[in-house]
Amino acid sequence: MKVKVVSRILEANERIAEENRKRFKEAGVFVANLMGGPGAGKTSLLEQTITRLKSHLRIGVIEGDIVGQDDAERIGALDIPVVQINTGGACHLDANMISEVLDDLPLKELDMLIIENVGNLVCPAEFKVGEDIKMMVLSIAEGHDKPLKYPLMFQESSALVLNKIDLLPYTKVDINKMRNDSLALNPKLKVFEVSCSAGTGIDAWAQWLNGLRSQ
Prior knowledge:
alpha/beta; Rossmann fold; 8 helices; globular
């Protein structure tokens, strides 16, 4: 029975995700679903990205967290539209949660909407929300074993940002293994090595993201 229940949940989510997708297309907005574990640096990456791109793209953000609104306040300080979703315990955002807040965003005035999903390396990859692309952040501090332990998110994502590379001299992490295992799971994965605190690699990442909107 559990398998049937999960199947129904995913099917219902897919229907709402398709409705969201149609709405995004009508508004002419490109949607990216940004995933990753807690503390990987998703919000820091967004801050750096928005700072570089907001003169070229009209960007909006949906922030997903179990509780709190600290991340939304950080993004809002950059003077762009942002909406906070608190799941109240759920480990991911689903299509219905996204649908319920779309009226709070000026979709037709945006070029790109970035959804920062709840910090988790498992559940967010299972639920479509109507996005054009899935992307993920993995920090060096999380260890090089994560791709093989949590393969689905790597398989579902089009881009992987390896963050906090400034910490490499202070860890025993094998970044080559991290990269190679990720690419073995998904040969089409675009991999970026960055440090949000130092600003390293952010320009190349932002340029790639900017290019998606024109494709």
